[in-house]
Fold this sequence. Notes:
Blueprint: H1 2-10, H2 13-148
Keywords: Coiled coil
Protein name: Biogenesis of lysosome-related organelles complex 1 subunit 5
Family: Belongs to the BLOC1S5 family.
Amino acid sequence: DVGEVYSRLLDHRPVIQGEIRYFVKEFEEKRGLRELRVLENLKNTIFETNERVLPKCEQAMQDNLSETFKRLQAANAMIHRLQERECEARKLQADKVMAREEKCIAHWEEFMKEQQKKRVEVDEEHRKAMERLKEQYSEMEKELAKYASF
């Protein structure tokens, strides 16, 4: 008797297992119906999407894509024109720089020629001054030689 009392009071496994079986059975029945409804709703949504929404989206995409494509072509043409202008401006700037360089080179060559002429003139003047000084010193030596004989 004690074992049976103990089993009834403290061993709840048979009762719990029965409750678990009942819960699983109820859950599966309700879940099965719920999943069937979810699948039916999903099927209806897919059908509506394929039949109505997708064609509307495709048409909207075609309209918008053609407009976007036209805009992109216009933007591309504008960018191409800007690049051409920039290239022309760079070329013009390079031509100006080359003209300035050539002008500077010509100016430098003219300056160097002028300096060469001035150097030749200075050298000639120096040579003449040296000759005058030599003559002057030779005359002074002759004068000194006269006074040295006294």
